[in-house]
């Protein structure tokens, strides 16, 4: 029995949900999403809530039950509130700046790293050592953060690099004499 799938998804005011022809469309103030529903689950809407149920008791249907419910919840949350992740840059001379649709990173290389900001994502740098990535699509926000972090992941000796704000870096002891 899925613990995630059995919970209904609450639809807040200002979000339109349409279920038809094996697809679900979610529209809100921050955008819209279209998601193909798997044949193994049944999605219904009543009283401002979306419920997901498996059609049969196969292993695949039970697996897709919770996954489909989570994807629908992420779409509803994305078009109503959006998602935000914060990255922090640690290191002497390491900094970031946004110039138009380009994020410029100085990460200790001989050159600046230019990252083109994709559509649907907004990046803000309130401080030169903090990057705030926002968007309606949770997967896209996470992917952009992972790409930025991938340019210079945090190293275990001094902790220099790009890390998530809530990430703990396991530090190692340096050389001994």
Describe this structure in words.
- The chain is an alpha+beta fold and 177 residues long.
- The chain has two domains: 9-80, Outer Surface Protein A, domain 3 (Alpha-Beta Complex); 83-164, Outer Surface Protein A, domain 3 (Alpha-Beta Complex), CATH 3.90.930.12.
- The chain is built from two helices and 13 strands, in the order ββββββαββββββαβ.
- The strands form four sheets. The protein has a four-stranded antiparallel beta sheet, covered by helices on one side. Strands 1-6-5 form a three-stranded antiparallel beta sheet.
- The longest helix has 22 residues, at 59-80.
- It is elongated and about 65 Å long.
- The mean pLDDT is 91.
